[in-house]
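Exercise: predict the fold of this chain.
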Amino acid sequence: MSENTAIAHGAHEESHSLEIAEHGVHHFDTSKALIWRIFVVLLIITVLEFIIALTPGLRQSELHPNGLIPNTAVVGIFLGLTVLKAFYIVGYFMHLKMERINMIYTVLLPLLFIMYLITLLIIEGTGSFR
C-alpha cells in the first residue's frame, strides 16, 4: 500500500468514525427526548387519576351522593387509564411498540384473565349469601 493510499484510508476511517459518533449523539438526543415525552404523558395520566380519586364532589360516594361521575364510571376510567399507562410502559420501556401482538398478549390477556376471575368471584360470592 502506498503512503498516499494509507493516508487516504486513515482519513476515511476517521470520517467514518466521526459519522458514527455523530449518529450516536443524534440517536441519544432523540431517545432522550422520547423518554421525557413518555414521562410527561405518564405523569399527566397519573395526575388525572389523582384528580379523579381525590377531588371531593367529583365522584359519587357516601359522603358525596350528588357527585358528577358515578362510581362504576370511575372504575371504568381507572381501568382505561391503567391499561393506557401499561401500553406506554410496555411499548416504550420494554421495546414492544413495534411488536403489537406481543404487546397485546403482555397487557390485554392478563387484564382479561383478571376481569374473568373477578367476575367468577363475584358470581360465586353472591351465591353463597342466598
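Check your answer against the key: The chain has a mean pLDDT of 76.
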